[in-house]
Amino acid sequence: MSDTPLKLYNSLTRQLEPFVPIHHGEARVYTCGPTVYNYPHIGNMRAYVFADVLGRVLSFKGYKLTHVINITDVGHLTDDADAGEDKLEKAAAAGARSIWDIARHYTEAFWDDIKALNIRQPAQWTVATDYVPQMIEFAKGIADKHCYELDSGLYFDVSTVADYGRLARSRTDEGEGRIEAVAGKRNAADFAIWRKTPPGETRQMEWDSPWGRGAPGWHLECSAMSGAVLGFPFDIHTGGIDHREIHHPNEIAQNQAHTCSDHSGAKIWMHNNFLVDRTGKMSKSSGEFLRLQLLIDKGYHPLAYRLMCLQAHYRSELEFSWEGLHAALVRLKRLVMAVETVRSGAHSAEGDVTSIEHVRSHLDRFEGALSADLNTAEALLWLETMPSLKGIGPVEKFVAIEKMDTVLGLGLLHITRADLRVRPKSATITEAEIETALAERKDARAAKDFARSDAIRDDLTARGVEVMDGDPLGWDWRLAI
Question: How much is the average pLDDT of 152-167?
């Protein structure tokens, strides 16, 4: 490929920086994973589509990738600031189930969404409860110089490290706005390293420690796991933009204390922006919140949501709407149909031509877009123009499309238009009934009975079926918006 250097936006410095790996030829990446107390909503999943694209680009550029994603199955309270109930304990109590069963169920549901969105498996999933001994050792190593003990647990004193909060750049005399007061804290921004189980209470997940029986703080978990698996310093730490304000600054403070330096632990910190919801269903407290399965139930293939994410830059807000999702599905269908035509031509072509010299400049522009801080929106345009390039053979086009799809992850090499036809959960009409109606409509059109033809089409539309004249597939489901 071209020698275009990969430039990434570092949230820590607020500027684009060339990616220069700490270990030659390697890229070590850590992504903050889910707290598995409920199903992830599609806003959560945007972070993993972004991290997946980052990893695919690094692989595309020739780096040996080690990508780690954690599973938080203990220690995350109902806000980021050491206040409220533990989310896992609360979910287990509400469902009268074992906390371990809760964590396992929602972890597997998250992994199902990962698979549905064609997100590659990381090199390792780090599960928080598997690393509690390492967390205790991490805490012991920084406790004397950086922490103090209260009745409620062990707290990190943020005044003991240099330039606390520089990632968020939101320090004030009162501290971060979302941090609630805890009696005895030296500074408003101080946070729990270890939370003691309150007297008279018993947690389903608790361990012995030098500071009493209890559980690790959420922030400690990511520092301990990323350091244990990737080593300090590593190359890139990713997460949602909401982590930039409290969670990641606290990770950085712990990493500075642990390494006895001003190093943040990761060389580059990257954050995807929010998915903005206009439907009012993003919150998990609502009944029918926007999880990936809801999109599928309403007739949308999950890769349409992946494409929707790729249409926007990861650092831009992305507004969700059903109309926008439908447009993404239509765009995906057109792309799949174009690639099917190229694939058919490539399979029937004589010889085994794998040269891409005639599309080299096209691929270079594709790579250039991705090298400019993962500009997937522009890269998509280069992918879409590939099937219609003039004077280029189908084999050469297919080889180029294969390289492009390896990065964008839309599954174009194996998915078909028929695969994108997802039956809405609420649909009452059967596929056999649809085919019968279409056959009747064909007969009506042949007899020039256009009133009958239109009536059949209108009836199908009312039942959620979109008739597409001229499309070889003939019909598809469409959500009534």
Answer: 96
Q: Which of 67, 61, 59, 79 is nearest to 114 (CA)?
A: 67
By CB neighbour count within 10 A (0-12 exposed, 13-18 middle, 19+ buried), where does 57 fall? Answer: buried
pLDDT at 3: 78
Query: What gap in Å lies between CA 245 and CA 250, rounded to an integer?
Result: 9
- Are 294 and 113 in contact by the 8 Å Cβ rule? The answer is no
The SS3 of residue 55 is helix
Mean pLDDT, the chain, integer = 92
**pTM, 2 dp:** 0.94
As a whole number, mean pLDDT of residues 279-294 equals 79
Structure tokens at 408: 């964008």
Helix (H), strand (E) at residue 16 = strand 15-18
- Tokens 């794998």 belong to which residue? 354
φ, ψ dihedrals at 477, nearest 5°: -85, 150
